[in-house]
Structure formats: C-alpha cells, structure tokens
Write a structure and sequence with these properties.
With 432 residues, the chain is mostly helical. 72% of the residues lie in helices and 0% in strands.
C-alpha cells in the first residue's frame, strides 16, 4: 500500500483520542518508573552500604523483561488492550507502594521488581499494537517519534525529580509518589481508552468463507496489510504459544534484520553512555561534567526525533536511515582525539540526533508484522531493547577495565558504524 510522501502533523497525531490517552499514561508511567528506580537504589544503598546491591536495584527491572517478552509475549494479541494496560499500571503501583510501605529484605525487593518486570513487555506491546491500529501512514511514524521524545524527557525528569523528591521526602515517600503516578496512569487508560479498543485480536486465521460486499470501515488502518503467508495458528497455553510466536518471528529474515537494526545501535550507544562519567574523570573535566555529558545524547535524541519526524518527508527520512546510524557512531570514534569539553558535548548531541534513524524503519517494521502477532512483535522489540541495553554497559564496562574508557567508547562507535548495512532496505517502499 502506498502512502502520501508528506510529513504528518502533530495535530493529526493528537487528534486520535486513543493516542492521546496512551501518550499521557505512558509518559507519566515512565517518569514514575525512573523515580522508582532512583529511590529504590538510594534506599538499598542506605540500608546496606553496598554499591553492588544498589546497582542491582537500578538494573533489576531490565534483564527480566527478556524472559517475559519470550514467554508471555503472545498475551499482547490474545487479551483485550484496555484492561491489560490498566492492570499493568496498577501492578506497577502496587509494587511501588509495597517498596515504600514495607520493610523488606533486599533480595525480596529485588525479586518483586524482577517479577513485575517480566510482564512489562506485555503491557508495552499491547499499547504499541493499539497505536499501530489507530494511526496510519506517516501519522504512525510521527506518533512513534513523539513517543520516543516523551520517553526521553520523562526519564530525564523522573531521574532529576527523583533526586529532588528523595532529598525532600526521603526514598520511601518518593516511592509512594511513584505509586500515585502509576495509579493515575491506570485510571487514565481505564476511563480514557475507548471501549472499542478493548476487543481482543483474533487468535486464529480468519475463515475462508466469502465476505459480504460492504464499504470499508472508517477507522484508520495500518500502513500496509500484513503478509498473507505469515499467519501462525495458536496452540497450547500462553508460554507455549509465546515461544512458538517468538521463534516464528525470529526465523523471518526481514523481521530479524529489522529487530537487530533497532537493538544493536541502541545497545552500543547505551554502553558508551554508561562510561561517560569515567571518560570525564580520565579527561580531568570539571566536577559535574559527567552529568552534562550523560544528558547530551538525550538532548540530541529529542532534537533529532523532532526535526526528522516533523519536517523530513517520509521518503527522505527512510533514505537517510544509514546516514543517521553513521551519525550515531562516528562522533563516538572522534572522542579518541581528546577534544575539549564543549566539543565532546556537541559530539554526544550528534550521537543522540542519530537515533532518528529509527523513524525510517517504522513503516517497514509495521509492514512486516504478521497477522495476529503485531502486539507480540512489539513486545519482542521492547524485550530485546531492554535486555541489550542492560548488557551493553556490562560488556563495554568490562572492556574499559582491560583497556580504557576512551577505547571502549570508540569501540562502541565502530560497532555502531559496522551495523549500518542492517538498516538498508531494497527495494524502497512506494509512495503515492
């Protein structure tokens, strides 16, 4: 299916009430999660004095998502979206409240965080599926851009606000505030998401009987119909069906390439960002420069998504994916030249701008989604992003121990450049 080669407007995107509701709820929940992670890390460190346990508290919600995405991902297409998403935010609220109100052993707190994290890809995948169903053409791509921008801003505000909240209220009261934010997000979805969006996705291929001749429904359609030969019938329970769906998706060469294209650059850059404090110390930059450097990629990501999403024609955006990936990696390589602090900051902003490459992949990614597995595909995308963004800092940190932070960051840049061929599509998608 061809679409018009013009950038969508924010008015078009926010005119869709479903997107508005999920945008507000998701932004609020992401900020609350960032606040919760920070407050729990402070609480664990205050109780144990262990940097390792504090770091585990910070990362306990990431790697378990890998398990949940693989074994529970099919729930995104089997369950109704509105109750699934609202229950998900409710569970997050219960977790934050329990961490704030109860005096729990550290291992119990970390275990609770890990268990809830297993379900995170399910809630996220369901929300992404609903948005894909309600926004069409370039409005869908711009909606993804707006979501990325709000995610970055919410994480920054959540962490910054976390520092203020913990200092003013203490970690336990900050956790209760995070719980309240999750409750508001749950209520927003429960009462703001249109009821018609709560119908479940079909769990088996459609019957082959002739369809009555009638006008097409007026609700917006996905940017392209799902591939006819890519259906997979559902068998067994949730775990078996999720595993079968995940392996089915990963066997598809196009889907596998598009997943890796979105997973790997993010993992490499996340690993480099984790070393910026050490890089600042090695370069003898002033105190506090590490925080400035860590904020630079997020600022660049916000700017890149805004400009590419709103002002670039879809065809140009898609042709520029490889250039944006190079823009992510090359500035990291240039840090080896030991430039002054303002130049380092500018290079990291450029790296963040490069994240706009993701927008050029969205139409092809949605086009590749199999019938009845769109939600699981988005859950798998979220799973890989979280898992690899957790592993990237670990692996590059180990490499930095052997070599130096400068060499490890440059290695991340080189690896990012080397995965550029993954983002190329041949032939290009047609436009009207």
């Amino acid at each position: 299916m061809t679409v018009t080669d013009r950038p969508a407007s924010y008015r078009e995107v926010f005119a869709e009430p479903t997107f508005r509701t999920l945008f507000v709820a998701r932004t609020l929940a992401i900020g609350a999660n960032a606040l919760q992670i920070f407050a729990l890390s402070v609480l664990v460190y205050a109780g144990t004095g262990s940097p390792l346990l504090s770091a585990l508290a910070f990362g306990a919600g990431f790697l378990p998502q890998f398990v949940g995405g693989l074994l529970l991902g099919s729930l995104t297409d089997r369950l109704r979206a509105r109750p699934l998403i609202s229950i998900g935010y409710g569970i997050e609220a219960i977790l934050a409240a329990a961490l704030g109100l109860l005096v729990l052993p550290v291992w119990v707190s970390l275990a609770l965080v890990a268990v809830v994290a297993c379900f995170t890809p399910v809630f996220a995948g369901s929300a992404a599926r609903v948005i894909a169903e309600r926004l069409s053409g370039d409005a869908y791509v711009l909606g993804r851009s707006v979501s990325s921008m709000s995610s970055s801003a919410a994480q920054l505000l959540g962490l910054a606000g976390g520092g203020v909240a913990v200092a003013a209220l203490g970690p336990r009261h900050a956790l209760l505030f995070a719980a309240a934010c999750h409750i508001v997000a749950a209520l927003a979805v429960r009462f703001g998401l249109p009821a018609e969006q709560s119908s479940p996705q079909p769990v088996s291929p459609q019957p082959v009987s002739p369809q009555p001749v009638s006008p097409q429904p007026v609700s917006p359609q996905p940017v392209s119909p799902p591939p006819a030969a890519s259906k997979l019938s559902r068998k067994g329970g949730t775990v078996r069906d999720s595993w079968a769906g995940a392996t089915f998706l990963l066997r598809d060469r196009t889907i596998r390439r598009l997943l890796l294209a979105q997973w790997l650059p993010s993992a490499f850059v996340a690993g480099a960002e984790a070393l910026l404090v050490a890089y600042s110390a090695v370069r003898n930059f002033p105190t506090g420069a590490g925080a400035l450097l860590m904020g630079a990629p997020a600022a660049g990501m916000f700017l890149g998504n805004f400009v590419a999403g709103r002002f670039l024609r879809p065809s140009l955006r898609e042709r520029s994916t490889a250039a944006f990936v190079l823009l992510m990696g090359i500035p990291l390589l240039l840090l080896l030249t030991a430039p002054p602090l303002p130049v380092v900051t500018a290079l990291l902003v450029l790296t963040g701008i490069g994240f706009a490459y993701n927008l050029g992949l969205q139409r092809e990614f949605l086009e590749a989604a199999p019938d009845g597995r769109t939600g699981q595909l988005f859950a798998l995308l979220s799973t890989g992003l979280m898992a690899l963004q957790g592993l990237g800092p670990l692996l590059l940190g180990a490499f930095a121990e052997i070599t130096s932070p400068l060499a490890a960051i440059a290695a991340a840049g080189a690896a990012t450049v080397l995965v550029t061929p993954l983002v190329r599509r041949r032939p290009p998608l047609p436009y009207g």
